[in-house]
Amino acid sequence: MRRYATQAASEITVTLSDGHLTQEGQDCMMGVATLALLISIAESQVNMNPDKLSSAERKQLLALARQALEAAVQGQALPPLKLEDLPPRLRQSGATFVTLTRGEELRGCVGALEAYQPLAEDVREHAVAAGYRDYRFPPLDVSELPEIHIEISRLTAPKRLEYERCEDLPGLLHPGVDGVILRDGASRATFLPQVWEKLPEPDAFLGHLCAKMGASPTLWRYKKLQVFTYQVEMFAEGED
User: Is 180 exposed, middle or buried (0-12, 13-18, 19+ CB in 10 A)?
Assistant: First the structure.
């Protein structure tokens, strides 16, 4: 969650900095001090989150994802998961996305937006799905496995974002923090918060998300859509 804390702090920095641009020069030092305090508070609140997975729990989930992917590549059935041997939080319901990369390139990303099974089982299922059921890519080959890097995003429950006018929507999003779901009738699409790294402008972010949903990139500009946001706890292989 350190990354989430940094992103949250960055969001506060932008907001406060913009506000202080209109202040007199003698107020600037107070603004900086206040900003530092707010960042410290924000980081402390995130780090004290009792729902945050421990380092050991994260490593266990990554190991389960790796084992599931290796079994699938070798054509082996996944062995039953012994939930009684897992920590309590890995037995609780959880929603995750598993992202596979090879070098700097995406190789698969599949997940669920709502929890419907134990967190550990959700990770195993979506690790295999990312390698074999992402329609954008061919099935993973055994020769690729040593180069595959696994990243897990654990989602919070999505919350409806209420807004009155279409033009207000970009300003209600928190770049780098919010995952976003757009829904128009039976059509639905989502971007994880990580997508903000490539699409940092809310207008472009929404346009690409509409296109992913199969709609015109400008749909959000003239039609009110159902919008939901969520946050993630992201962790990956090779991290401490």
Answer: buried
